[in-house]
Amino acid sequence: MKIRTTLRIAAAAAASLLSVSAMANDKAVVSAAFKSVFYLPVYFAEEHGYFKDEGLDVRIDVASSSTNALAAVISKSADFSLHGPEWTAISFGRGAPVKVVGGTLNRLGVWLTCKPAFAFDGFKSLKGATIATGAMPTTSSSAFIKLVKNAGLDPKRDVNLLEVPLGNEIGPLSSGQADCAVLYEPGASQAQAQGFKVVSAFSREIGPYTFSAISTRQDISPQVSQKLVSGIDRALKTIRKDPAAAVASGLKLFPNLDPAVVRASVQRLIDDGVFADSVAVPEQALKDALQTQIDLGNLDRIPADGKWLDLGYADSIAGKAY
Description:
five-stranded mixed β-sheet; D-Maltodextrin-Binding Protein, domain 2; about 45% helix; alpha/beta
């Protein structure tokens, strides 16, 4: 009798362990190019438990560059990475087993900020002005040059481009060396806090542009990939519906930044449409982004092999409500 009882207890314990194992969450490591307000959606999803709701435990690492973020995926120290899709296209073309499975930023997150007294009336009004830009090749400067050309100006003759290391563009504006500066966030909001004025959002000037995407390896389970993509999709849609919650998340993520700058930065990304509506990647937005990188010399060509894109699931949940 005792033996039968012991066996029943053992069997029950084994069944319980199997049940717990069956319910255990999948795990994933996400490598972000930088700890930046641009990647707020993945932090927002983690903070609000969206990944756990999908059955996924996520750890977010910061790689310090786009190439390092993707390298972490290729080396299998991370499962997903967040950065521009061009780096995935470049690595895929070189034989790396990587692909893009969704998007997070479908507008260009760059702004033109000028001195208060500067009379900006479209890009044609920049003729003769000195503009601080990040040293080429960089997306922000390339986009600025495109807009200057579209206005009928010659960027070599009609404007004075003052190239500085990326992240230092406010310096010449503050010192009086430049009339305007081409800035990412939180730079634009920091400049505004110093009394300068934001006169143009490139997201509105250029339109849809895949600025950041979700990349992974070809061998990552579709189940795990879909869980991560779903969590980020829910975050993007919630950020749109509840900007105050997005700002609160940004304040937690960047406790050492001026709270007013964080609030302005997050709100600007929402208002100017930089945070995507969903994880879907519009075809033209992706083409425009890749063509910019081809023009910069970062990318030779768009890969002919479609295996570098796996967007079916992201597209299928674009209209999903949470």
